Amino acid sequence: MQNPQYSTHHIYQHVQSLVDKLLNDLTIDSGDLATKDTTAYSQQLLNNLYGDITAKLNELEKYAEWNTFTIALYGETNAGKSTIIETLRILLGEATKKQQQAKFKQWQLDAGITVDTVEQTRQLILDTEKQIETIDAAWNIEQTELKQMLIQCETSHNLAQQVWIDLKKSVSLLQRFIWLFKTSPQAKAANSTNDAFSSAKSALTQQTASHLESRNQLVTRVNEIEKNYLHLISAIKLAEPFADGGIIGNGQSDFTLDTQCYSFDVDGCQFNLLDVPGIEGKESKVSEAIWQAVHKAHAVFYITSKASAPQKGDANNPGTLEKIKQHLDDQSEVWTIFNKRIQNPIQLDKNQLVSDCELESLRDLDAKMTQYLGDNYQQCLMLSAYPAYLAVASCLLPDSRDRMVQNKFLAQYSAQQIIVKSNIAVLTKMFTKELVEEFK
């Protein structure tokens, strides 16, 4: 336990009391004319500086973190800060992440919902809809044929009927009398074509009813499966708070508005990681959160997805470089992390993660950052966070995009191969040894 005598609060009070005492001593008239002018000049200087000193001490007392080594991940909006942190939470066994994963796995056991369950249900919907399309297509052909047959029968009947009507008008009374005992061929033709026309109508009616019955059965089946699918999706939503990737942004500016703190304990090394809002979002919303985070941190990692030096601005619109200098100027240690965007496993086929052209641009970035930040700036680290995240994530939602992309990566590489190719180890080694042990 920290000795109260050396607590942060007491240190601040002690420094301020020393300044107050020095000012008070200078106000006492010693009567020595030789030192009077010097004393007055010193008192004037201290009075001018006193307000700044007090404000600075108050700021340090408000923001500084002395008990636990703290690292802020800071940088451009949508550069992958949260993806890096989520990967580290899984890899290094951060406590709240382990709790979330335990809840997710319990949900899986209770709900019995797996990737196969969701995929089979989705496929069953597609297959049944395909069946409907197939019988509709077949019925369209059959219906056309039946209607053509009906038209032919109707035409034949109308012709035969007209012939019979005309014949009856032209024959004698005797012939009519004979037809009472012997049906004329024309009458037989009229009756026969009428029977064929009636049969064609009946066939069309029956086949239409049969098709509709089959179709309705399939539609009812699709509705039942879709209802079950919606039930699965609703059940999956219950697991969203516990799934891996929940802290990762959706690509929209200002997804992270407040600084999030994650505490780690790795082999006795305790440290915090701060997920800081992006510096390119709506600064009225996030400026205070950024300021507090970077002044609380002992080390800052500037995250960028661009292999180029940050851009300068102008008098009216400060650029990224000016914002970095404004935010990070007081930090003792500043690194850049180039987070290369990789969304397809094919991009991991190359022998090196970063191209020669990108390396040249990153050397220019190092030079610019050193120029602006001086000795505070360390160097640029290179990695690709998204493949590393996919390699270590074990609690992804069954219907999520991440799950589908993960399957593509794991179809080509093992999880360990992806971790190596992503170069995420360049960061994990630092967090568990170099930075934390130096702080101790």
Task: Provide the domain count.
Answer: 3
**At the third CATH level, what is the topology name of the largest domain?**
Rossmann fold
Structural class label: alpha/beta
* Helix/strand order: HHEHHHHHEEHEHEHEHHHH
Report the count of strand segments. Answer: 6
Q: Alpha-carbon distance between the termini?
A: 15 Å
Strand content: 5-15%
Low-confidence stretches: 1-8, 251-255
Verbal overview:
This protein has 440 residues and is an alpha/beta fold. The protein has 3 domains: 4-52, no CATH class; 67-111 and 248-439, Rossmann fold (3-Layer(aba) Sandwich), CATH 3.40.50; 116-240. It has 14 helices and 6 strands. The protein has a 6-stranded mixed sheet, with helices on both faces. A hairpin with a 2-residue loop joins strand 2 (260-266) and strand 3. Helix 5 (115-170) packs antiparallel against helix 7 and helix 11 runs antiparallel to helix 13 (415-422). The longest helix has 56 residues, at 115-170. It is rod-shaped and about 160 Å long. The chain starts with 7 loop residues before the first helix and ends with a helix.
Give the topology:
Layout: H1 8-27, H2 33-63, E1 69-75, H3 81-91, H4 95-111, H5 115-170, H6 173-179, H7 185-237, E2 260-266, E3 269-275, H8 283-296, E4 299-304, H9 320-328, E5 334-339, H10 356-373, E6 377-383, H11 385-392, H12 401-412, H13 415-422, H14 425-439
Parallel strand pairs: 1-3, 1-4, 4-5, 5-6
Antiparallel strand pairs: 2-3
Helix pairs in contact: 1-2, 3-11, 5-7, 11-13
